[in-house]
Amino acid sequence: MKYPVLAALAVAVASLHAADEAKPNASAAKTEPALLTKEAPTPPPAPKVKTLTPEQVKQAWTMLGFSIASQSPMPQVNSQLELTDEEIELFLAGVRQAMRGDKPNFNPAELGEGADAMFQERVNAKAGKWGKQNDEFLAKIDADKSVTKTASGLRYKILAPGSAVKPTKESTVKCRYEGKLVDGKVFDTTKNRNNEPSEFPLSGVIPAWTEGVQLIGVGGKIVLYCPAAIAYGDQGQGPIPGKSVLEFEVELVEISKAK
After folding, report:
1. Is pLDDT above 70 for 158?
2. Which of 65, 89, 182, 210 has its CA 20 to 30 A from that of 57?
């Protein structure tokens, strides 16, 4: 993490020190050529950092915790175990103890296999419910006559065909997209990145994308319904649980490189 206040102070001090050393003395100025006696340019002023309000100080600490937690396994733990509000508070109590260097006021060894079994039971229950929800979603999609199913299991619906020229699996493309789970939760979208298109080789993405994006041209839009077998499989990835059917709406912006 960068600390702009300290960085700005260090730059200002270093710049002033360098400027003082660069200035020639009066006697040298009389004998040395003008080019050598020219003073160093005045360094730009250090940027002014606005002091945070008391409320913003609280927000900064919250931001730090959010940043660290969102990059840790914590969101995945909550997704797999479906923690209640009370369970989240108990979980955070353990986090606080660890941060402070305290020890639990109980013997963790006494929990042992019982805790493991409880957690595994919760994971299995979530997986069973999630699998049923995904199966029901695919059944609903298969009943939609506007959706086409391919040999791989990919389901798709073309919203706009785009140009006549289409990418191949060797192409590198730029796309805008939004990806959702079957419960409607958005797990990734270019809208969160100023809607700037993402660039990637079609040979380096999930099979459903490699196949589906080749069906449209530049300017085209397509909805992809991706079974787990041609997406992230039984294990999942990040916020995507294992065995997830994924729904993507994709706009092909550019074929930036093609063989």
Report:
1. yes
2. 89
Query: Are residues 89 and 78 in contact, defined by beta-carbon separation less than 8 angstroms?
Result: no
For residue 36, what pLDDT band results from cuts at 50, 70 and 90? Answer: very low
The length of the chain is 259
Model confidence, pTM: 0.65
Sorted by where each begins, the domain ranges of the chain are 148-257
For residue 237, what is the DSSP state? Answer: B
Phi, psi of 226 (to 5 degrees): -115, 105
Q: Which helix (H) or strand (E) holds 118?
A: helix 112-142
Backbone angles phi, psi at 13, to 5 degrees: -65, -45
At residue 240, does pLDDT exceed 50?
yes
Q: How far is CA 70 from the centre of its chain?
A: 9
- For 132-167, letters b (16+ CB in 10 Å) and e give eebeebbeebeeeeeeeeeeebbbbeeeeebeeebb
The type of residue at 129 is: K
What residues contact residue 217 under an 8 Å CB cut-off, 6+ apart?
161, 162, 163, 164, 165, 166, 252
Partners of 157 in the beta sheet? 223
Domain 148-257, architecture per CATH: Roll (3.10)
Tokens standing for 236?
Answer: 């999942």
* Nearest by Cα to 242 from 80, 117, 101: 80
The DSSP string of 189-222 is EGGGGTTPPEEEEGGGS-HHHHHHGGGS-TT-EE
First to last CA, the chain: 41
Higher per-residue pLDDT: 108 or 6: 108
